[in-house]
C-alpha cells in the first residue's frame, strides 16, 4: 500500500500485481472519473450484490502492471511530479514513460496522453533544423568526454536518447512520427555495441562477423538492439541500403 496513494476516505481499491506481489491503491472514483471516461463508465455500472470489497469499499482487480498503474495514479494525484519529469529531455524517456503512456491511451486520460506524446515529438525531431540542433548538442557532449579507466562513467549514452527503445515505443503506442529520426540515429550506431551488454557486471567480449575483438571507446554510442523486432531489423537494413545508394 503506497502511503501517498492509499487514502482513508478513498471510495475504491484497485488491486494490481507486479513482480509477484499485489499492490493496493485506495483512491477516489470521482478523481479517476474526472480524468477518464473509461473509469467514469466503469464506476457508473450498477453495483452487484456479490461485488468484492476491500477495507470496506469496492474492489476492482486491474489487469495492468502495478508499477505502471502507480505511475498513472501518481500523475493524476500529483501532476507536478510528472510535469517536472517531462520538462527536460530524458535519455530513458522511452522506457520510463512507455507504461504510463500506454495506460493513458487505454483509459483515455487525454490530458496526460497529450503531454507524453508531445514530449516524444520534441525528443525526436521531424525537421532538419531541429535535427541539426540536436546533433549540435550531442557533438558538444561527445567533445566533453575524457577517457578514464572507469569506462562506466564515460557512457555518453547516459546523456543521449536511446533509439531502439524509442522505436519500440513508437510501434506499441502508435507514434509513427518519431520513427524516421529514431531509425536514422540507430543507423549511425554499430550493431556490435549493445547498450545492456556493455553495462553488465561481466560484459561479454564484443566481436564482429569475422570474430575480431572490438574495443569500446569512450564516447562511442550503443543501443538496446535486443528491443528490435525482425520487421524493425528489416526496416533498418533497407534504410541503410537506401542511404548507401544515395
How would you portray this structure in words?
It comes from Suillus subaureus. It holds the Pfam family BTB. InterPro entries: BTB/POZ_dom, SKP1/BTB/POZ_sf. This is BTB domain-containing protein. The protein is 49% helix and 12% strand. It is of the alpha+beta class and 246 residues long. Helix 3 (66-77) crosses helix 6 and helix 10 (179-187) crosses helix 12 (230-245). The longest helix has 16 residues, at 128-143. Residues 147-153 have low confidence and may be disordered.
Return the string of H and E elements: EEHHEEHHHHHHHHHEEH
Number of strands: 6
- The portion of residues assigned to helices is 40-55%
Mean pLDDT: 86
Radius of gyration: 22 Å
Please give the largest β-sheet.
4 strands, mixed
Q: Cα distance, first to last residue?
A: 57 Å
- Number of discrete helical segments: 12
* Global shape: elongated
Sequence stretches where pLDDT stays below 50 over 5 or more residues: 147-153
Short précis:
This protein is 49% helix and 12% strand.
Keywords:
246 residues; alpha+beta; two-stranded antiparallel ribbon; 49% helix; BTB domain-containing protein
How do the helices and strands line up, and which of them pair or pack?
Elements lengths: L11 E7 L2 E7 L1 H7 L1 H8 L8 E2 L2 E9 H12 L1 H9 L5 H4 L1 H9 L3 H14 L4 H16 L19 H11 L5 H9 L7 H5 L6 E2 L5 E2 L15 H16 L1
Parallel strand pairs: 1-4
Antiparallel strand pairs: 1-2, 3-4, 5-6
Helix pairs in contact: 1-2, 3-4, 3-6, 6-7, 9-10, 10-12
InterPro entries: BTB/POZ_dom, SKP1/BTB/POZ_sf
Pfam family, one: BTB
Protein name: BTB domain-containing protein
Amino acid at each position: 500500500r503506497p502511503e501517498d496513494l492509499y487514502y482513508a476516505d478513498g471510495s475504491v481499491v484497485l488491486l494490481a500485481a507486479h513482480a509477484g506481489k499485489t499492490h493496493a491503491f485506495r483512491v477516489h472514483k470521482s478523481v479517476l472519473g474526472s480524468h477518464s471516461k473509461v473509469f467514469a463508465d466503469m464506476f457508473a455500472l450498477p453495483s452487484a450484490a456479490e461485488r468484492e470489497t476491500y477495507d470496506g469499499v469496492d474492489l476492482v482487480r486491474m489487469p495492468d502492471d502495478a508499477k505502471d498503474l502507480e505511475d498513472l495514479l501518481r500523475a493524476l494525484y500529483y501532476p507536478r511530479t510528472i510535469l517536472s519529469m517531462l520538462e527536460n529531455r530524458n535519455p530513458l524517456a522511452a522506457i520510463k514513460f512507455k507504461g504510463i503512456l500506454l495506460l493513458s491511451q487505454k483509459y483515455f486520460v487525454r490530458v496526460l496522453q497529450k503531454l507524453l506524446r508531445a514530449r516524444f515529438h520534441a525528443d525526436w525531431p521531424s525537421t532538419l533544423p531541429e535535427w541539426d540542433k540536436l546533433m549540435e548538442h550531442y557533438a558538444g557532449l561527445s567533445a566533453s568526454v575524457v577517457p578514464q579507466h572507469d569506462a562506466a562513467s564515460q557512457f555518453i549514452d547516459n546523456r543521449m536518447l536511446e533509439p531502439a527503445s524509442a522505436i519500440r515505443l513508437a510501434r506499441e503506442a502508435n507514434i509513427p512520427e518519431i520513427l524516421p529520426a529514431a531509425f536514422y540515429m540507430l543507423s549511425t550506431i554499430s550493431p556490435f555495441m549493445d547498450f545492456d551488454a556493455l553495462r553488465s557486471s561481466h560484459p561479454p567480449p564484443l566481436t564482429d562477423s569475422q570474430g575480431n575483438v572490438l574495443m569500446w571507446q569512450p564516447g562511442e554510442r550503443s543501443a538496446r538492439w535486443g528491443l528490435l523486432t525482425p520487421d524493425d531489423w528489416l526496416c533498418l537494413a533497407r534504410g541503410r541500403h537506401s542511404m548507401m545508394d544515395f
